[in-house]
């Protein structure tokens, strides 16, 4: 595979027909079967697929980091021409962190919380190189500067918890690059980051790849990230590589039904629910012990499956010199009729132009958190009391039957806004009207009928589902509490709700641990629906899900809104998903709304400079689409002491060139609201007609 015409002497890693098994009580379980690929100098190979497909297992197998029960039973892994399979643990230790480095999804997995960052960085050098501590310290400082870390000298003496998530990831990348490795394994390195930080980290990885000439394996489930960083693309499914080839060929001409399904799951930036449709892949990835060895492994989920697919595991079909697909119909798949029909999800024709009554309104809402201080002055009640201004003077409306999307970086106040709304945090000031009722009281003081009409779907269903109770009993509890069904009909109502979220009645007796992540999220949605609320608040409900499960949950929420007529607040960091799902969008920055309006207006000029930067950072799953590169410098300022004037002025890329006084007004005066004819409002000193002259963020790439 990957038989490029380029010279073979620049091949850094060659994985050939590798099989990885895990020993269990029931015998060996096949986790990886027959995987082959090559990685060259200054090249990035992307490994994509859903959770459980074996992407990380391959990476750990390369350095034999499979744990006591994992083993490579077949195949070859050659690094710079030398065989790695069968090497001793001592030999592999010398390679790890030196010639082969790894960047993990969670930087805290790679950083010791009790050791200063400078000591951890220097240790990488002193462990593998015969150099002094002083020289290692200086080289670590230089590498931190190379990864654009601010305030390097102070960062060196800090502990991991004293820097932001994006800075932690930069430290891990610097650590990986210190010994100038020949191969870097990156396992979901940007998944936990904000889109702005993610964009900066991806830019950094591209720079380092070119400067250090390293070979890269980039593992991710995000097709937009793959389109941005990869040269070559490998699609994994259930331990097999089902398609591989150059990036452009995979995106333009996918030939395996699984690859086609992944691409159909993802909304493109600018797509809306009125004009496009997400098509989730049915079912889920089978666990290793349940994978068939006598038929195509994707057959149970494939929309093109025939009896011929069940006769044997297919081999690779060659599409072009480097493009391979593991499907017997690969050469004709795009012309074949589906043997299984997709369920049509009705378009949600939310009467966009029709005026609607407000269900919920915020007016000058403030949610402040008192800042505790250990100073002697504060202990005696003296001195000025400080507050974290998490939400500061926010006014916005949610109409009946419509969805308001709220976007912004971590720390901008999205979750605090919602907590103030549902009564989990006290409202400091302002007015909140829900169904004409004042809802500024804490949840413990609210009327039961008011609580019933406002329910929430959380980001992590594991944190909200009790592991000791069955799914049925947890959905039944709010039905009994709010008396939405007679006591003798509670079980029937639970089964109706399970069917509404596309789960079978048998799930009534299951425990949460017996469900997949997507199934748990569906249970969370069913429980939110149990009281038949008028408003459903979704706080990052799909951010932790695979793309196929994400598509299914989004479609489910759209169907629920259509059937029940519920209004929704949808919080997310993925602007593509927010655009697809929402009717109106509010952009938050440091506790304030800086732009709000209909969804279609937000994604075209005029933009608030912050919105423009967010849009430029979104990874788009299309190599033919180019984006303006607008990268915000620095971190979001502290809400304890926000900047004067416009809060965004410390990071704004537009104020210097679009304001006559070089943006000095931004530092001293609160910006005014500008309103367009479409009801699109922007909080900025730059006039609307000037912002309208800005070119769109997304455009076709020049050939």
Protein described:
The chain has 703 residues and is of the alpha/beta class. Among the domains are: 113-178; 604-700, no CATH class. The protein has 23 helices and 26 strands. Strands 6-7-8-3-9-10-12-11 form an 8-stranded mixed beta sheet, sandwiched between helices. Helix 14 runs parallel beside helix 16. The chain is globular. The relative contact order is 0.09. Mean pLDDT is 88; it is low at 3-7 and 344-354.
Summary, kept brief:
This protein has 703 residues and is α/β, with parallel strands linked by helices. α17 (547-564) links the parallel β19 (535-539) and β20 (567-571).
- Strand line-up in the sheet with most strands: 6-7-8-3-9-10-12-11
Percent in strands: 15-25%
* Number of continuous helical runs: 23
Summing up helix and strand content along with how strands pair, one would put the structural category as: alpha/beta
């Amino acid at each position: 595979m990957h038989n490029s015409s380029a010279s073979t002497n620049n091949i850094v890693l060659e994985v050939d027909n590798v099989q990885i098994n895990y020993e269990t009580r029931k015998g060996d379980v096949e986790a990886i079967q027959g995987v082959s690929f090559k990685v060259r100098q200054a090249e990035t190979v992307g490994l994509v697929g859903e959770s459980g497909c074996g992407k990380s297992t391959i990476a750990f197998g390369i350095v034999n980091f499979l744990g006591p029960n994992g083993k490579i039973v077949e195949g070859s892994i050659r690094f710079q021409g030398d065989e790695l399979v069968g090497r001793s643990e001592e030999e592999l230790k010398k390679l790890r962190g030196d010639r082969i480095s790894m960047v993990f999804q969670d930087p805290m997995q790679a950083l010791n919380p009790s050791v200063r960052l400078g000591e951890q960085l220097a240790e990488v050098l002193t462990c593998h190189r015969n150099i002094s501590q002083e020289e290692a310290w200086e080289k670590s400082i230089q590498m931190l500067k190379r990864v654009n870390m601010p305030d390097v000298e102070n960062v060196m003496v800090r502990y991991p918890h004293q820097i932001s998530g994006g800075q932690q990831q930069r430290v891990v990348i610097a650590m990986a690059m210190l010994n100038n490795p020949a191969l870097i394994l990156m396992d979901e390195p940007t998944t936990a980051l904000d889109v702005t930080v993610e964009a900066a980290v991806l830019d950094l990885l591209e720079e380092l790849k070119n400067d250090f000439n390293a070979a890269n394996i980039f593992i991710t489930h995000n097709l937009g990230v793959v389109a941005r960083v990869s040269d070559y693309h490998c699609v994994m499914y259930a331990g097999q590589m089902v398609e591989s080839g150059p990036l452009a060929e995979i995106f333009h001409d996918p030939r395996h039904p699984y690859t086609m399904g992944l691409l159909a799951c993802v909304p493109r930036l600018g797509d809306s629910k009125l004009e496009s449709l997400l098509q989730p892949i049915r079912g889920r990835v089978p666990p290793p012990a349940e994978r068939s060895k006598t038929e195509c492994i994707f057959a149970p989920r494939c929309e093109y499956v025939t009896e011929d697919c069940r006769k044997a595991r297919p081999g690779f079909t060659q599409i072009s010199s480097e493009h391979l697909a593991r499907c017997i119909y690969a050469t004709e798949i795009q012309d074949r009729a589906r043997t299984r029909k997709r369920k049509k999800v009705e378009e949600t024709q939310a009467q966009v132009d029709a005026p609607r009554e407000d269900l919920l309104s915020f007016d000058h809402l403030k949610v402040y958190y008192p800042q505790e201080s250990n100073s002697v002055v504060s202990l005696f009640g003296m001195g000025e009391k400080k507050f974290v201004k998490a939400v500061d003077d926010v006014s916005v409306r949610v109409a009946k039957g419509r969805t308001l999307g709220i976007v912004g970086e971590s720390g901008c106040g999205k979750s605090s806004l919602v907590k103030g709304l549902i009564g989990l945090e006290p409202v400091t000031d302002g007015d909140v009207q829900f169904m004409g009722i004042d809802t500024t009281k804490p949840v413990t003081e609210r009327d039961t009928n008011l609580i019933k009409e406002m329910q929430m779907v959380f980001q992590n269903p594991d944190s909200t589902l009790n592991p000791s109770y069955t799914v049925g009993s947890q959905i039944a509890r709010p039905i009994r509490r709010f008396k939405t069904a007679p006591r003798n009909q509670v079980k029937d109502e639970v089964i109706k709700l399970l069917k509404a979220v596309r789960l079978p009645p048998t799930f009534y007796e299951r425990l949460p641990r017996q469900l997949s992540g997507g199934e748990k999220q569906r249970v969370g949605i069913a429980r939110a629906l149990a009281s038949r609320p008028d408003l459903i608040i979704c706080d990052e409900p799909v951010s932790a899900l695979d793309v196929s499960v994400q598509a299914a949950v989004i479609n489910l929420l759209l169907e629920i809104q259509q059937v029940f007529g519920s209004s929704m607040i949808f919080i997310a960091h993925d602007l593509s998903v927010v655009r697809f799902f929402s009717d109106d969008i509010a952009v938050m920055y440091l506790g304030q709304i800086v732009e709000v309006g209909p969804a279609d207006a937000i994604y075209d000029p005029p933009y608030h400079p912050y919105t423009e930067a967010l849009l430029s950072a979104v990874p788009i799953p299309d190599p033919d689409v180019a984006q303006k590169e607008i990268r915000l410098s620095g971190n979001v300022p502290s809400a304890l002491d926000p900047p004067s004037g416009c809060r965004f002025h410390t990071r704004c890329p537009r104020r210097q060139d679009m304001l006559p006084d070089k943006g000095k007004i931004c530092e001293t005066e609160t910006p005014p609201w500008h309103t367009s004819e479409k009801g699109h409002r922007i909080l900025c000193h730059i006039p609307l007609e000037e912002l309208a002259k800005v070119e769109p963020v997304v455009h076709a790439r020049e050939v």
